Amino acid sequence: MRRRHAQTGLTLSELLAALVVAALLAGAAVPAMSALTTRAKADAALEQLSRMIQFTRYQAITRRTTATLCPGRETECGRRDSWHEGALVFLDANVNGDRDAGEEILQRLPRLEGIRVRWRSFRNRKSLSMRPDGTTDWQPGNMVVCPIDGDAKHARQLIVNAQGRVRFSRDTDGDGVVEDARGRPVSC
């Protein structure tokens, strides 16, 4: 008597069905991964900027002189809207908010990929200066970090008070967009 052996493989139609299901699942995951990546870039940039502000304040206090954080690359402060290209922390001997020859650079922030940063302050300056007592030079303000596509759901904001302390904005109403210091949604 001959015994029949059971088949242990997949038919072509079963294999195609499995591939279709896998493709559908992968297609659904791609947009979620894209949003996660965008959010992670904004969070990382916000954290780097927060550390730079805190470093600037610390240097002003410990060195008993004004320290300034400005947008820029290499050795010069850049345009008001160029924070995404990098930033500099330097000792600002003449307290003009711009790096002049001979003013020591203490730290550089590299280019921030995939985002834009906007700084707004009370005195409408492109840089942030900290005094020897750790307070701002009369320029409390905020930094808004936005993805290149301008989606406010991925925007983040740092709020700097007059004492030079930093806090992160939060989504207090649960709509997916963080609110500024006045409770309004942050916009890109």
Question: How would you describe the overall organization of this protein?
Answer:
A hairpin with a 5-residue loop joins β8 (156-160) and β9. This protein is elongated. It is 28% helix and 23% strand. The strands form 2 sheets. Strands 1, 2, 3, 4 and 6 form a 5-stranded antiparallel β-sheet that branches. The chain has a 4-stranded antiparallel β-sheet with strand order 5-7-8-9, with helices on one face. The chain is an alpha+beta fold. The N and C termini lie far apart (79 Å). It is built from 1 helix and 9 strands, in the order αβββββββββ.
Write the layout of secondary structure elements.
Layout: H1 12-63, E1 67-73, E2 76-77, E3 87-91, E4 105-109, E5 115-121, E6 128-130, E7 141-147, E8 156-160, E9 166-168
Antiparallel strand pairs: 1-2, 1-3, 1-6, 3-4, 5-7, 7-8, 8-9
